[in-house]
Amino acid sequence: MNKNDALLAYALRLGDNALILGQRMVELVAAYPELEEELANANFALDYIGQARMFYAYAGELEGKGRDEDDLALLRDENEYRNLLLIEQPNGHFGDSIAKLVLFEAFYLRQLEELVHCADKRIAEIAARAEKEIRYHLRHNTQWLIRLGDGTEESHARAQEAVDNLWRFTGEMFAADEVDNVFENEFDGPDLYRIREQWRETVAAVLEEATLAMPEDAWMASGGKAGRHSEHLGYMIAEMQYLQRAHPGASW
Amino acid sequence: MYTQGLDQKDKSAPKREQLETPEQLEAFQARIDAEEKIEAKDWMPEAYRRTLIRQISQHAHSEIIGMQPEGNWLTRAPTLKRKAILLAKIQDEAGHGLYLYSAGETLGVSRDQMVAGLLSGKAKYSSIFNYPTLTWADIGAIGWLVDGAAIMNQIPLCRCSYGPYARAMVRICKEESFHQRQGFDILRVLCAGTAGQKAMAQDALNRWWWPSLMMFGPNDADSKHSAQSMAWKIKRFSNDELRQKFVDVTVPQAEFLGLQVPDDDLVFDQESGHYRFGEIDWQEFIEVIKGNGPCNRQRLGKRRKAHDDGEWVREAARAYGEKQAAKAAA
Amino acid sequence: MSNKEWPLYEVFIRSKSGLSHRHAGSIHAADDQMALDHARDTYTRRSEGVSIWVVRSSQIVASDPAESAAFFEPAEDKIYRHPTFYEIPEGVENL
Predict the structure, then answer these.
(1) pLDDT at A244
(2) Which of A120, B26, B190, C49 has the most CB within a 10 Å radius?
């Protein structure tokens, strides 16, 4: 894989992670446990949609085929999305969403911190903006995981179950493939091995404060980064793309 | 408007009212007449307080329920930009519900009590949100017509005699200024688009026009409690005045879009400078208020489910907060 | 199981450096940190602030409007506290 292909693939992955997670959060609008959390999560979803737009716009330029953010976001087939499996998991209950966000954002924040110093100027610029947003998300969501873990018996059990269920999707974040490796070598990109160590430290500390047990690393699911997704993604994409597909070429 | 149910009579006659002296009531009215703002801890007639609680909580409920019809298209928004704009708008509605509940709380009623009124079906919210959003053009129509109608009512509320409500409305009006424009912009693009898109826009106007006119509430002749609200300067214009103003500004906008307002009786009256329009189907209005609109059960059902599903979460946070407070005190 | 709502907090926002914090509204939160987050997400969505204070509403001590005559009117006749009370002779500057 050459340098330019890796850069394009990397930008698309970042865009896909942001879009698919943002879309999952959008599904929850008007269903949060309290009004104030409704506002918080709309802010978070807006951050993700904004990040997706920036990464896609850049990916479209890199590709040079005239595709814009919406062509990339809304007119690709399911197996062309390269987001992590963790991101596309259905929302479940509030504890599932919080656990998912903490596990992902503890990784994503480290990834962005490293991308701020990468050799590609545009990626570094977008990462600098996103990093501030995700730092706040992670803090907010971490506190929620602690509240749930150390709240009532019921919330503790639900939070533990959520972490246990999602754990098998965390390995994919650190499983470097060709895109990761070329991007790391050619653009001074993130060292996933080091990020994994930092991630484990962060997550272990949060779980401890939340009085939750850290699951054992067992079998890890993967495939999202290669376009092999769970059944869940197809439905989400069908819904998301509906108008673009039903009215080809129309402006909105 | 968002508080149509207000025109019903308040049946409870609390004892506190009997203790109010004519001197107190007179002094209170003098403050109102002098355009003084009433603040939370000031003396106020019990009926004034209860009218405000009802109006403010209905207004808040309307914002909260109003998130649903628009939220219905959030996952299917046609572009990422439209998705972000729509989400920001729906978020504002959550925020506006929150500001309004806060204003209500200054009157000695808790948010929980107000929400309980909504969930039990006792408290009302605007009839308009019981209509379904069937196409993307409906999102445009809501912004243009529903927010447009709401603004007519909300701008005078910024001068309402009750300080906390007036201040909440100032903030709300400032933030809502983009809501109507984004709706019009959606329709403008659709009307300039394919034949299918334009038909979608016309269909949306056909379905949303009359319900939008109903938002202003019954005709003045049938709106018995308006007079007291006007005297207290909670309300500053009558239902019919606001409805007329809305029609006058909206019809030319429809013409600009190249859309046909679905009213055969609509005609511009040169002499008065106003549009004359057809009779509203008041039977439909009454049915929707009574709970028989297309989506009443669905909207309330979704709100109840969100509330019930969230109970363990709110409870966990309470328990954690109490533990933290106990630790800090130790 | 206790079923009561999260405590109410009052929110004060400094809109930019150099200005005082000003009352923006209120929010509910289960703890102080949550209160700060909620204040941020509710009242600074349009970059309205650079600093936030939150305080439990129950902790605010307020004057009683029924006693406002005794409380505030005595200040009204002390007009000598205001600079406009004094006459400045023609020709005197920098005073």
Answers:
(1) 97
(2) B190
Neighbouring chains to C with at least 3 Cβ pairs closer than 8 Å: A, B
Nearest CB to B99 within list C2, C25, C30: C25
pLDDT (average), residues C79-90: 84
φ, ψ of residue C17 in degrees (nearest 5): -55, 140
**According to the model, what pLDDT value does residue C1 have?**
41
Domain layout of chain A by residue ranges: 3-246
Please report residues of A whose CB lies closer than 8 A to that of C36: none
Residue B269 burial by Cβ neighbours in a 10 Å radius (0-12, 13-18, 19+)? exposed
- What's the pLDDT score for residue B5? 52
Q: Comparing C-alpha atoms, which of B101, B104, B84, B92 is closest to residue B66?
A: B92
Predicted confidence at residue C83, as pLDDT, reads 82
* A84 interfaces chain B, CB cutoff of 8 Å: no
Residue where the block lists tokens 């990397």 = A10
pLDDT band at B1 (very low <50, low <70, confident <90, very high): low
In this prediction, residues C37-56 reach a mean pLDDT of 94
Residue B199 contacts A, CB cutoff 8 Å: no
First to last CA, chain B: 52
Instruction: Report the distance separating Cα B111 and Cα B291, nearest Å.
Output: 23
CA–CA gap between residue C64 and residue C56 (Å, rounded):
19
Q: Which residues of B touch A56 (CB under 8 A)?
A: 80
| Of the candidates B80, B96, B90, the residue with the CA atom closest to the CA atom of residue B139 | B90
Cα distances from B167 to residues B82, B102, B164, B303, C14, in angstroms, run 30, 11, 5, 27, 18
Q: With a cut of 60, say whether residue A195 has pLDDT above it.
A: yes
Question: What angle in degrees, to the nearest 10, is found between the helix axes of B80-105 and B46-65?
Answer: 160
The verdict on C46 touching B (C-beta cutoff 8 Å) is yes
pLDDT (tens digit, 9 = 90+) per residue, B195-205?
999 999 999 99
Residues of B in contact with A93 (CB under 8 A): 309
CATH, domain range A3-246:
1.20.1260.10
ipTM of the complex: 0.97
Question: pTM for the complete prediction?
Answer: 0.94
Q: Do A152 and B312 touch (CB under 8 A)?
A: yes
